[in-house]
Amino acid sequence: MAKASKKKTAKASTVRTQKRTSGYVHGFTREEQDRLYRQARFLEARVHEGLPLWRARNLIEIGCGVGAQTDILLRRHPDLHITGVDASAQNLARAKRHIAQLPWAKGRAAFEQGDAGALRFGKDSFDAAFLCWILEHVADPMLVLSETRRVLRPGSPIVCTEVLNATFFLEPYSPHTLNYWMAFNDHQLAVGGDPFVGAKLGNLLQAVGCRDIVTTVRPIHLDNRVPGERAEFIAYWTELLLSGAPGLVREGKVSAATVAGMTRELHEVAHNPDAVFFYAFVQAWAQVL
């Protein structure tokens, strides 16, 4: 019995991801969890409109976090059952509490803690997959996508939505904010993530054996033509930037003076009648072979 157990453990270790991230830039505080719900609602129309999930019934959500996207998927797709997988027990506990209070979600979601690079599910277990703002935080996106493809039935859709942080632009010019943003991205790279992974989705999906791959750059370009939406987005972006400040200061990546300067600049941008905000993310749809 001891030998069999040892052999089984060794085998399991060979399929586990070899690369590991060493931190999450935003942290796992209650405030950060609350922010994730606000972020999901704020970006809902941009992320979820027209997704190819109309035939899906049994979806796996990789990196479900606090269940913020799970909530939206269940509401928008009433015939869907979702299995959410995440590495954080803390976030999963919050996800379970959140989904349990939604009348439309009763009996339609399950959550489990696990390694996205070594899913416990067998082949052909699901008929759709959804990944949103997760590959930027993993050390080996190709391994995660390969495992996701493995548990999907042939012909199933896979939807990935990811960041492309090189696209960020603000007018008026805000040097403290840009310095902070560079440090933010450098830190994410240093802990094993990838703030530019959105641009690589086509290559990654092709490499793991997907077909009919479509990548769409989704720009957010807000200026004097949409002053109300611009103000809302600058407020949202300010919250996102500041959410990473405590950790970056603690790690010595930015100074308190830089954070104070950024906060001042963002306030000035928010009140500038000719402000411009630009950012683009990338969404990819594909089918598994």
N-to-C CA distance: 39 Å
Report the portion of residues in β strands: 15-25%
Order of helices and strands: HHHEHEHEEHEEHHEHHHE
Q: What is the molecular shape?
A: globular
Determine the structural class based on helices, strands and strand pairing.
alpha/beta
Topology (elements, then pairings):
Elements: H1 2-14, H2 30-42, H3 44-48, E1 58-62, H4 68-76, E2 81-86, H5 89-100, E3 109-113, E4 128-132, H6 141-150, E5 157-162, E6 169-171, H7 175-190, H8 201-207, E7 210-222, H9 227-243, H10 245-250, H11 256-270, E8 276-288
Parallel strand pairs: 1-2, 1-4, 2-3, 4-5
Antiparallel strand pairs: 5-8, 6-8, 7-8
Please tell me about this protein's structure.
- With 289 residues, the chain is an alpha/beta fold.
- The chain has a single domain, classed as Vaccinia Virus protein VP39 (Rossmann fold), CATH 3.40.50.
- Helix content is 43%, strand content 19%.
- The protein contains eleven helices and eight strands.
- Strands 1, 2, 3, 4, 5, 6, 7 and 8 form an eight-stranded mixed β-sheet that branches.
- Helix 6 links the parallel strand 4 and strand 5 (157-162).
- It starts with a helix and ends with a strand.
